[in-house]
Structures are given as C-alpha cells and as structure tokens.
TrEMBL record:
This is Mon2/Sec7/BIG1-like dimerisation and cyclophilin-binding domain-containing protein. It comes from the Eukaryota. It comes from Selaginella moellendorffii.
Length: 199
C-alpha cells in the first residue's frame, strides 16, 4: 500500500510536468533529464523494495526524486507545488516513523530541500500556493513526532524560512498572511513541545 501511494505521487508529478508548457513539448525528448529519469526509476524500482521490512528502507531513497524537483530552479510553481504535496503526504501518512532506518537523515534532507526551494514564478496566485505548501511541509516536519530528531540548525532553518514567508506575505493576499502567521505560532508551540526530549 505504501509503495502504491508513493508510485501515485510520482505519477502526479510526472503528469504535472507533461501539462507544463516548458516540459510538455519536449517531454519525450527529455526522458534522460535527471528529474524525469529519477522519478521514473523510483516508480520502476519501489515495488521490489517490498520484499524486505519497510522500516529497514532508507526514506531518502524514495524522497530524493521529489526533493530534487523541489530544489530545482528549472521547474515552475505547479510542478514544485505537486512535489511539495507529495513530500507532505509521505510525511503525514506514516510512510516512515521514528523506528525507520536513517530517519534523521531523511528529516534533515526534507528540511534542507524545502528551505532552499527554488521555482520559476509565473503568476502571483501560483507563487502563493507554493509558499503555502512550503509552510505546510515545514510545520509537518516540526509538529510531528519526527521533529524530535531534527538538529538545532534544521530547526533554525525552518523558523527562519517561515519568518521570511511571514515577512513576504505582508504585500500578498490576506489568506497567505493568515496562513503564514498561523504556521509561525504553531511552529513555536511545537518547538517548545519538543524541548523535553532534547539534550
């Protein structure tokens, strides 16, 4: 079931790429493009991993293709947004947990990629949609149980990125302003909630 869910997220990102004006005409020619290749390779190989306990699989193996899209400055806002949605679903669907091998590496990779997210802004609405998805993923990183494995630098990066979005939202829609402020409040609550489990 987990492999099927991740495969469906790969399909969603690839479908968004095919619908995008920059990628649509060249999609078949770009099969060797690193972003497309890594997504297709993941979809081909993920079902072979189900032969061993899922908790023994390094989450970075199935997160990396999505995080590559999030970090890439070649993709537009719709593609980046779809990749962020996939990461959010993986984070919140118990695909991996604190007992999973290399969970700390996976959480660090998510924070590092999302806080350095790059995308081409084509219109204000799509930009705001991506910013809200960034906030959603960052809050899921800190607010869930796995937030306890994040290092101090990762937590600082999450807070700094959220604060930047709060500041940027001042001259954007009221909805983004409300979401950004709410996310900052929830981050602070979650961080203080984790203090008891930190050295």
């Amino acid at each position: 079931a987990l492999a099927c869910m991740i495969s469906a997220e790969v399909g969603a990102v690839l479908a968004t790429m095919r619908r995008n004006s920059r990628w649509a005409g060249r999609y078949e020619e770009q099969l060797d493009h690193s972003l497309i290749y890594s997504l297709k390779l993941l979809r081909r190989s993920i079902f072979s991993w189900t032969k061993k306990p899922w908790n023994s699989i390094n989450p970075c193996l199935y997160l990396a293709p999505f995080l590559d899209v999030v970090r890439s400055d070649e993709t537009g806002a719709p593609i980046t947004g779809t990749a962020l949605s996939a990461v959010y679903k993986i984070l919140t669907s118990d695909v991996f947990d604190l007992r999973t091998s290399h969970v700390d590496e996976a959480m660090h990779a998510i924070v590092e990629s999302v806080t350095s997210c790059r995308f081409e802004v084509t219109d204000p609405a799509s930009e705001e949609a991506v910013l809200m998805k960034i906030l959603q993923v960052l809050l899921a990183c800190i607010g869930g149980d796995m937030g306890a494995v994040l290092g101090h630098r990762d937590v600082c990066n999450v807070v700094n990125t959220t604060f930047r979005v709060v500041h940027q939202a001042g001259n954007k829609s009221e909805l983004l302003q409300r979401v950004a402020r709410h996310t900052m409040h929830e981050l602070v609550r979650a961080i203080f909630g984790h203090l008891s489990s930190m050295d």
